[in-house]
Write a structure and sequence with these properties.
Belongs to the intradiol ring-cleavage dioxygenase family. By secondary structure, the chain is an alpha+beta fold. It has six helices and eleven strands.
Length: 286
Amino acid sequence: MSQHQTSEPDETTEAFDSPTVVAEAVKGPDDAAESQATLSAEIDGIETQYKQDVAGGKKPETQPRLDYRPYRSSILRHPTKDPRHTDPETIELFSPAFGHRDIGTLESDLTIQADGEPIGERIRVTGRVLDGEGRPVRNQLVEIWQANSAGRYIHKRDQHPAPIDPNFTGVGRTLTGDDGSYSFTTIKPGPYPWKNHHNAWRPAHIHFSLFGSEFTQRMITQMYFPGDPLFALDPIYQSITDQKARERLVATYNHDITEHEFLMGYNWDIVLTGANRTWMEEEDDD
């Protein structure tokens, strides 16, 4: 028999002797999930329709769609009624007070929070927090959290098989300066899998939390890295249908921030109000 020929299997022994058959018979919960191709086709369809709508005179969308179908869980938990504007109460016009004594000067460096150095690409992320008129938002709390370089959070719900770095907590915070500036030194996070569909991966990102100068400016958002191949495949990123609005979530590599033989530098400004406001995520998003 040549190597290209096959014979009929022996039905009396194959079910017991073939590990391939046994492996195929064992299915996990992800086997029934939809494919990336299915999700990508939906994303492309929404993108095409959005471009046609804008070309026809529709106002561009700068915030994510709350019922973005490729982001499967948003269909079940998005608001079903239109929001109504109400004048904020007095208490909502003032943010919590954070003094310099409340935050340690080393909390913005996520690479020195343990006994040893974390593993991965060391980076610095800097930028300014601005209002809708381009004015700096001073002395305001900025918090970040992220996965480690392997794409793993230190969280009991994150159990995918990537290593936990004992020298990396993934959390930090700082106060903006008089010019609205902030700076974090950290490790570039890795992409990680999530359960939206089969073989679903989130692009590498850092979560940012800001209070702003008012409770009405409260924001939780995500910063991404330039050139990520997962952008086109990610329903959370793509739920912002306007390309220019999506691009405002992507940091810019800055060689002036980069330090010789030490770290890579990125710049990312955050706008709390106005037409160019940075996209805001819900607090329980991935």
